[in-house]
Amino acid sequence: MLHEKLRCYKVGVELAEGISKNVASWPRGFGYLSDQIMRAMSSIVLNLAEGNARKSTTERRRFFEISRASASEVSACLDLMFAFGLINKDKFELFKSRITLVSKMLWGLMR
To answer: 40 with 77: CB under 8 angstroms?
Structure first.
């Protein structure tokens, strides 16, 4: 599939995997945040794939915008994860740099 060739897609899937491994070790009581970030990460990847399959520029852009908004949501979730002590500084900085990269690449796709 064409979306699998996009670097943005690959980075998004890798980030989802890294975040998934991190949230699996969280203590009880943070399931809501785990669900939220996993849904938002899924939204990034799925809307990117669906948008890339659209022929209309307007349609493609709409899906890429949704994907980019979900990237902002993931970024906010990462901020909360760090604030709540659920992630160490190194992982936080790594994940934040990756989500920033995804967001920038999505911005480029929207042009």
So the answer is: yes
**pLDDT in the model for residue 1:** 75
pTM of the model: 0.94
Q: Cβ distance 68 to 101 under 8 Å?
A: no
Domain boundaries, the chain: 2-110
The alpha carbon of residue 107 and the mean position of all alpha carbons in its chain are separated, in whole angstroms, by 13
- Per residue in 17-51, pLDDT (tens digit) is 999 999 999 999 999 999 999 999 999 999 999 99
- Fold of domain 2-110: de novo design (two linked rop proteins) (1.20.1440)
Dist CA 86 CA 6 (whole Å): 31
The H-or-E segment that residue 108 falls in is helix 89-110
Cα Rg of the chain, angstroms: 14
